[in-house]
């Protein structure tokens, strides 16, 4: 944050050559500057370079109010919050103003009276751009008074007349004057409150009930909403939707690689002193593919969406389970295995809305089926049939292998070299030959062969047993 400008009076502000401009002019000018300099406008937002970001840039260049429409977990709020970076870092206001009055064009009675009384000596305060962004989560109990304003009973009790404009208690919108106002989950506002936004969106002013006063506001109104067929609690009324000049549709990552990039960026992986966590690439792909499978599954309600948050939570849980095992077994490396996927039932189930055709299948059953599909897709992409032919043949000769999420990695090495090719393919898949990585690679191979119907698998609470089909 740079220091505040030095001007502290209106006279000093004029001498400094300050030129006022509207919020839309600020955003447009700063956007053009960043585009020319090729600076990132929305850092940390992945997968929107060809879709959402160009549409947002067009809307901002036009000075439009905009609404982001999309399912949960599509970075709508993050996109909106990033708009703050397009505001000027500091702007002046009349000191003591509740609504950031421009010293050159005041709108409140307080600011007008102060300028009339003090003239060029009027005190100036500086407002940082972070203070010019206000966000409100829409709920059915939000009222017109919350957003626009109402009578302040304290000021009335102090002896002021009800007709006095100074008795107004300003709502969130006037307090965001010369800034950006965001409404999250817009359809949850009651229709009466949505009607109250008409003037702000069209005439750019607000009318506070009981007062013969109209306050011209300089504010960009941005909103987020889920699709109407999902948000059953309410809807965006047509006249209000019409006042949003830009409706921008967000989406989930379109490829598994993008899903993985978001997962890596957002995950807060647990760590422990003395233990190094390593996640093989195939494990990352399984975590991402699980979400992709859910997004295409008829068992999952697709209108509510399957958030990227599920991918992130599953990735963190996968590492946490491996870390817990390493600490209990006294190992210095934590590497997720296929047997750790059982821990993802808890981190997955709460993020899915299922299409129940009946009560025959539980939520856990659906999640486990999705996991199997994800593992099969990744295994088929990674492991050609001929690479594990020798492993499958060894099991046909009577080999049996037991695995468990609690089993020490060293136990996986016992008799390993007697199964032709298993060590080599496991080390290649897990990108290393440490015991923990070999164990992870072995489980991936065995589970993949089972899903190809080359091995039989018997599961129990203690673990799993692989034998010939």
How many helix segments?
A: 19
What is the third-level CATH name, the topology of the largest domain? Rossmann fold
Q: Give the mean pLDDT.
A: 91
Radius of gyration: 30 Å
Strand order of the largest sheet: 4-7-10-1-11
- Total strands: the figure is 16
The computed structural class is alpha/beta
List unreliable stretches of 5+ residues. Answer: none
Classified in CATH, the superfamily of the largest domain is P-loop containing nucleotide triphosphate hydrolases
How many separate domains? 2
- Per CATH, the class of the largest domain reads Alpha Beta
Strand content: 5-15%
Helix amount? 25-40%
Distance between the termini: 65 Å
CATH architecture descriptor name of the largest domain:
3-Layer(aba) Sandwich
Query: What about the largest sheet?
Result: 5 strands, parallel
Shape: elongated
């Amino acid at each position: 944050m740079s220091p505040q400008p030095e001007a502290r009076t209106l006279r000093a502000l004029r001498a400094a050559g300050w030129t006022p401009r509207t919020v839309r002019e600020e955003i447009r000018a700063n956007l053009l500057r960043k585009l020319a300099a090729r600076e990132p406008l929305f850092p940390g937002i992945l997968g929107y370079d060809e879709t959402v970001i160009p549409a947002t840039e067009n809307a901002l260049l036009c000075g439009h109010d905009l609404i982001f429409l999309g399912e949960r977990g599509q970075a709508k709020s993050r996109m909106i919050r990033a708009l703050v970076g397009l505001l000027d870092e500091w702007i002046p206001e009349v000191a003591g103003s509740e609504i950031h009055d421009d010293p050159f064009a005041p709108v409140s009675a307080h600011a007008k009276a102060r300028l009339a009384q003090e003239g060029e000596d009027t005190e100036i305060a500086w407002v940082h751009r972070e203070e010019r962004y206000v966000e409100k989560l829409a709920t059915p109990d939000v009222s017109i008074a919350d957003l626009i304003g109402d009578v302040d009973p304290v000021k009335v009790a102090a002896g002021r007349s009800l007709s006095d404009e100074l008795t107004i208690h300003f709502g969130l919108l006037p307090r965001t004057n010369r800034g950006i106002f965001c409404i999250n989950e817009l359809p949850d506002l009651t229709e009466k409150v949505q009607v109250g936004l008409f003037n702000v969106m069209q005439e750019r002013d607000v009318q506070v009930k009981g007062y013969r006063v109209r306050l011209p506001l300089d504010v960009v109104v941005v909103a987020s909403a889920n699709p109407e067929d999902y948000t059953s609690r309410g809807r965006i009324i047509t006249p209000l939707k019409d006042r949003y000049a830009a409706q921008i549709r967000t989406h989930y990552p379109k490829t598994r690689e993008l899903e993985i990039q978001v997962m890596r960026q957002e995950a807060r992986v647990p760590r422990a002193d003395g233990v190094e966590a390593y996640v093989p690439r195939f494990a990352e792909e399984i975590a991402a593919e699980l979400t992709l499978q859910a997004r295409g599954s008829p068992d999952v309600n697709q209108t509510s969406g399957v958030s990227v948050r599920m991918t992130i939570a599953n990735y963190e849980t996968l590492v946490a389970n491996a870390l817990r095992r390493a600490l209990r077994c006294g190992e210095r490396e934590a590497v997720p295995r296929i047997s750790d996927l059982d821990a993802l039932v808890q981190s997955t189930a709460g993020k899915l809305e299922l299409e129940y055709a009946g009560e025959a299948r539980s939520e856990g059953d659906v999640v486990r089926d999705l996991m199997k599909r994800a593992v099969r897709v990744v295994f088929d992409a990674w492991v050609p049939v001929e690479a594990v032919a020798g492993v499958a043949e060894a099991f046909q000769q009577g080999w049996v292998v037991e695995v468990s999420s609690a089993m020490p990695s060293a136990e996986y090495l016992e008799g390993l070299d007697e199964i032709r090719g298993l060590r080599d393919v496991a080390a290649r898949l897990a990108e290393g030959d440490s015991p923990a990585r070999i164990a992870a690679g072995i489980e991936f191979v065995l589970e993949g062969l089972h899903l190809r119907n080359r091995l039989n698998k018997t599961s129990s609470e203690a673990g799993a047993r692989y034998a010939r089909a």
